[in-house]
Amino acid sequence: MSLIVKDLCKSYGDKVVVDHLSFAMEEPGVYALLGTNGAGKTTSIRMMLGMLSRDSGEVLWDGRPLDTNTCNVGYLAEERGLYPKYELMDQLIYFAALRGVSRAEARKRIKYWAERLEVEEYLYPQMPKVQPEEALLGKKKSLGLRGRGKVQKPKKADQLSKGNQQKIQLMTALLSEPQLLILDEPLSGLDPVNTDLFNSIIREEIDKGKYLIMSSHQMATVEEFCTDITILNRSKTVLQGHLNDIKKSYGRVNLSLKTEQDISTYLETEGVHLVTRKENEYRLKVTGEEQANRLLSLLIENHVTVITFDLREPSLHEIFVEKVGQANEAE
Amino acid sequence: MKLSKRDFTGTGEVFDFTLRQYAKSKANIISGCVMLILVLISMPVVALLAKNGTISLGGDLFTSTSNAETVYIQNETFLSFDAPKGSYWSKTDFRPASSDAMELGEKDALAVITEDPDGSYALQVGGGTESELSAGDLQDLSDRLQKTVTESAALAAGVTREQLAMADADYSVKSGEAASYAAPGEPLVDEEGPGGRFALQYGYAIVVMMLCMISTAYIIRAVIEEKSSKLVELLMISVKPMALLTGKILAVMTYIFGLMIAMLGAFVLSGFAASLLFDFSAASLLQGQLQAVAPQMHFDVLEIIGVLAIALVSLALGYLTFSIIGGISGACCSGTEDMESANGSVVMLVMLGYIASCFGGIFNSTALATVLSLFPVVSVFCAPVEYVTGRIGLPVLALSWVIQVAVICLLMVFASRVYADIVIHRGSRIKLRQLLGMAGTKRRAA
User: Fold this and answer.
1) Tell me: the pLDDT tens digits for B379-392?
2) Are A94 and B17 an interchain contact pair (Cβ–Cβ within 8 Å)?
3) What is the pTM of this model?
4) A252-312: what CATH class?
């Protein structure tokens, strides 16, 4: 199976919002669609899914136009939404039914994902918690209506925190066990614990051999999961390709250095560009591995104690900022 | 852009979910129960009030017989008359009052009829000091004796019974061009006159107006809530926008029509309860009321079913028309703050149809009736009444339905062109001109 996006274009009047976007996923994995705010990522996703009409271009899944009939798609939209006043279980069963999942099967899957995402208490009626001392003493407080413990009703969407709503929305995307999963800003607004939970689920889906398209501003996450990327800026593609190849093309130019004394004079001698400094911790930009090695030799010759020497490729964040900056300057 | 079967895939799921949520809504349950209770108690309350004499409904509405054992009639006139007719008084003994002072029992009544020097008559009816007779019984007795005295006076004046029957008979009235006068024996087209027709038109138009306004308000609210809850994208991954709209429209239609049928059932139960509790005939009351607005109709079971079926078809067509417009209007809104203006547009259109139909009821013109019955949007308010009152025939009624169905199809095609774009649109409310522009662009693209 493969996903091919060919020459997608969209304009509103004179304003071009997506300008000839093309990319392909020949095998399962994660493809990152990156870009500044308003670059055209969400519009591209909407066009791919057929929600928005496109001016030109096509999207093929396994050689056929991508459609909910040709491909089982799961989608976590950037604009999260649930019916605020309806019970969550009803909503989940409804979304599953819309994807052709039977009620019984939906209930099974909801149970699995509710456990996995730790949201069971919001979906199923809960028995009141008995205080340990009451249990030990055999006290019973059910004297009259006020003292009686009530079964806690399942929650409605507007009774959940934003993070928990996001978990329910991720469930809606996963309930149909999709072949293609599109996650638009999946981690925005999540606390570190839930970010880890989401990351583990994304990893699971990758392991299952799913095709994932991810749009995110969290470069560390993208770097962790994605194999290929497209960076959009103001509707245009400014960088595209295999992430490792892109990084390799930049070379190892980022040097993190920690020493026991001030090395400013040696940096000047070697002509190394200082990015940031915090006491004796330096972040440097070198021209390549040769300059980095020369600097290291110089420090050793002068009996400078080196605690950390880390030479690496630029991060995706740095590449992104550089590419978008260049594109903006060119305009 | 053509509509295909695939555009409606998922309609069943949307319908099922929407209907379940409406049925589960506490507000809907409470309002539905209140309405049903009111309908259920309506007939027993009417019967109770009629029995107590608080209201007067006329006719033989009580199937039981009076509690009165004896009614003494003290006739101080030269008139001679029979006991009042009707099954209700069949077990009561009517006898002349003796000239001696009488002691009335608990179930006895005394009627005194006197003649004044100016030739007018006076009638007094009452029970004894310990009387158990109800005020309703005494009122009914008084009404019947009054009629009997009037008839007797006419007979005494030389009027024959045949002449009396003729004077009391129904007659038909028609006003209009001399050329359109009916030949002797031929039924008059305009039998019930403009007043009766207007009352019927007015009443029916109010029902259509209420149904359309309430149901479109439901649709508009559902569409705006879905849009403002940012759910549309999530839904559109699974269903086409037209299925989303159609499912909602059908669910609200089922809910509203279900409620109407439940009310009808409750009304039947209410009549049944009234007959059990008070021997009251609700059917006779209904028949009498209907006869008053459309005297040429017989209102037997078949005729009532036929009229109900015609009204239901027209109501359904009207509902579909306005709910599609409501759905489009709701989708044009940016959020719940625009709900009133979206509602306002549809209300204006409904009011247009309502007012036009009321005008049609006032003017006594068959041509105007035909035009209004065929004119889309207005026809749902007019056509059934014009047919029932005989101003249009079945072919015109059928043609008006065909035209309305065509309008619904055109609205669906229009919705299919714009709905997906407007429902996903963010920003200020979409104006009509923009909407038409969008439809035009889609048409050219197609």
Assistant:
1) 989 898 888 878 88
2) yes
3) 0.74
4) alpha beta
